[in-house]
Amino acid sequence: NPQQPDATTESVCGYCATGCSLKVHLKDSEAFNLSADANYPVNLGMACPKGWESLAPLKATDRATTPLLRDASGKLNPITWEEAMLEMITRFKSIKQRHGGRALSWLSTGQIPSEEMAFLGALCKFGMGMIHGDGNTRQCMATAVAAYKESFGFDAPPYTYQDFEESDVLVFVGSNLCITHPIMWQRVMRNRRNPEIIVLDPRRTETAMAATKHLPLRPKSDLALLYCFARLLVENDWLDNDFIQAHTEGFSELKEFLLNGPYDLATVAELSGLDQGAIFEVARMIGSGKRVSLWWTMGVNQSYEGTRVAQAIINLALLTGNIGKPGTGANSITGQCNAMGSRLFSNSTNLLGGHKFTLAKDRSKIAGILGIEEDCIPQEDSWAYDEILEGVERGEIKGLWIIATNTAHSWINQNRWNKLREQLDFMVVQDMYHTSETAQMADLVLPAAGWGEKEGTFINSERRIGRTRKVSRAPGQALADFHIFQLVAHYWGCGELFNRWNSPEAVFKILTEVSKGQPCDISGIKDYAMIESEGGIQWPLPEGTEAFDTQRRLFADGQFFYPSGRAKLIFEAPRKLPEATDVEYPFTLLTGRGSSSQWHTQTRTGKSDVLRKLYPAKSYIEINPKDAERLGIESESKVVISSRRGEITASAHLTPITPVGSIFAPMHYREVNQLTHSSFDPQSRQPNYKACAVQVCKA
Ligand code: SF4
């Protein structure tokens, strides 16, 4: 039977941060099929279309199979690995010699294993002398990181997926879970407690349609609405006063802010366009004393004031004591398969293991564990993604290494940033495909293995470390990113620093050592075999932990990560939209995931015939039929959408899902970010993809 595998193995999916396990079917050690893993505690035998189609992108005809170097005429030509390394090192060293280590930088991803992220960050900072590097996790999770750090004292999502099934009230803020995290949604559907499902979203999304209550608030009135809920909790004493007193600080200041600010029911109902009764009812449910869990994702994170919105959600959980217990939590749902690995181990924003570059004792600890000189470790924080690109714009950064991310498509206000290419002396792109928009702009393309062609670990949304495995050989001369980093270290002349970093599992061991004593302590994980036998392991797991549950949440003891043990109630008055609508640009542009069958810039999912059939090939927008009628726009006709930054053409999909006065554009098409506005959350530096002003007219 040609469909009969001669072996199977399990590997965590390489798309979203749900972290489903896939059972990969092998013949002669090569993957030829897969199914969902029925025994893994995350997905319980389920997978979404992207997971089922995970093998298709590996067989694409446009895989990068050899290094490519651009010649004087602008053509990319195949070269050997040795030529590629000599070129990259010569060009980068020349830049460093002339301008210093600050003139080199890297941009990486939440899509590669923690071991590779850690190697890249250590190589760039400790080996090559760079200061600034960041990942595309800045586009998805930076806000949650900043919010948790300030509120809890560490970047610590508190929940386990079991909480979806054990809540009485689930509140989703800016999350279309049905589409963005379909297997998490299936966990909600398994909830047998007859829960209230409340969705706060301007659009009547698939999740909103399935909810028991949808609050279609006006775009970016979320912060005022959350403060209104908190004020109603205070006014009606729907509070867990014992919890507040024992485990939080800042309550009296928050109370004064809420009661003296414009967060009363009438004012917020007017601002948000919501019914007063509906707002009151949701506040009452949050303060009901039942098990309440609050969940958020990109509708919150990708905002100019995202950190404060996330903290307003965290405050609701703290005020009602909904944390550390089954079915509760202020829970950030992560985007990419290893965004949390990047948060803890990429050595970009934080020193390895959630340490601080600015603390001498942290630098000394890491230097001791790694056996390197302390002065190899920078004493300052890295610039964020947007600051790095501004560094390029100012001519301070001259050499850029981009790994497994498609900046030219995904970064906000694309037309501005794509001009930066001309500012760079040398740009290296390391990717599975030579055809991505970013690879097409490179001076040098390094061909990389993809998910399924290499080993390592990912950390999912609920802090679960899972194994991803090599089940297929990479084509041509493509190498695992891990091996490319080894090559770069060797040719740079700093290979000796990384003698211990000789395999992904050896690096994982190092990561367990650097984590020791941190909130994310995983020193109790002995090896990969332990992760595999346990069905993934949630952090923390300190050395000496003998027995542990497969579903664990944080803060069961009410102790947070500040020295006081208390969580902080943080607040700040809402700010104005960076770009409000006006007569010339009267529509608010909302962007987001358009389908469970597509992933980000379609670099991989666009390679699957099956996934392409599930999703329109050409760019489209959603517009409310009332707006369409007023503008004379017919269903599926072409429209021109323009902002102060650019103009695109797309098909018009008429749907009441999107409210009057807004349009929705999926992020999967390159055109969209020609329109978006360069504004950022000041705490997290996350881009504000969710609201800018545009004009729509017939093409
Ligand atoms: Fe699961 Fe996400 Fe992979 Fe889909 S993309 S199979 S939800 S991990």
Work out the helicity level: 25-40%
CATH topology of the largest domain: Rossmann fold
Bound molecules: iron/sulfur cluster
Q: Quickly name the level 1 CATH class of the largest domain.
A: Alpha Beta
For the largest beta-sheet, the strand count, sense and barrel status come to: 7 strands, mixed
Query: SS-based structural class?
Result: alpha/beta
How much of the polypeptide forms β-strand, as a percent range?
Answer: 15-25%
Number of helices: 25
Query: What is the alpha-carbon Rg in Å?
Result: 24 Å
Strand order of the largest sheet: 5-4-16-15-14-6-7
Quote the average pLDDT: 96
Distance N to C terminus: 54 Å
The number of distinct β-strands equals 26
Second-tier CATH architecture of the largest domain: 3-Layer(aba) Sandwich
Uncertain regions spanning at least 5 consecutive residues: none
GO cellular component, one term: membrane
Family: Belongs to the prokaryotic molybdopterin-containing oxidoreductase family. NasA/NapA/NarB subfamily.
Keywords: 4Fe-4S, Iron, Iron-sulfur, Metal-binding, Molybdenum, Nitrate assimilation, Oxidoreductase
Protein name: Nitrate reductase catalytic subunit
Please outline the helices and strands.
Elements: E1 7-12, E2 21-27, E3 30-36, H1 49-52, E4 68-70, E5 76-78, H2 81-99, E6 104-108, H3 114-127, E7 132-135, H4 142-152, H5 162-166, E8 169-173, H6 177-180, H7 182-189, E9 196-200, H8 206-210, E10 213-215, H9 222-235, H10 241-247, E11 248-249, H11 251-260, H12 265-272, H13 276-286, E12 292-296, H14 298-301, H15 306-319, E13 329-332, H16 339-345, H17 360-370, H18 385-393, E14 399-403, H19 407-410, H20 414-418, E15 426-431, E16 444-447, E17 456-459, E18 464-468, H21 481-492, H22 504-515, H23 528-534, E19 537-538, E20 567-568, E21 587-592, H24 609-613, E22 620-623, H25 625-631, E23 638-642, E24 647-654, E25 662-666, E26 692-698
Parallel strand pairs: 6-7, 6-14, 8-9, 8-12, 9-10, 11-20, 12-13, 14-15, 15-16, 21-25, 22-24
Antiparallel strand pairs: 1-2, 2-3, 4-5, 4-16, 17-18, 18-19, 21-26, 22-25, 23-24, 23-26
Bound molecules: iron/sulfur cluster (SF4).
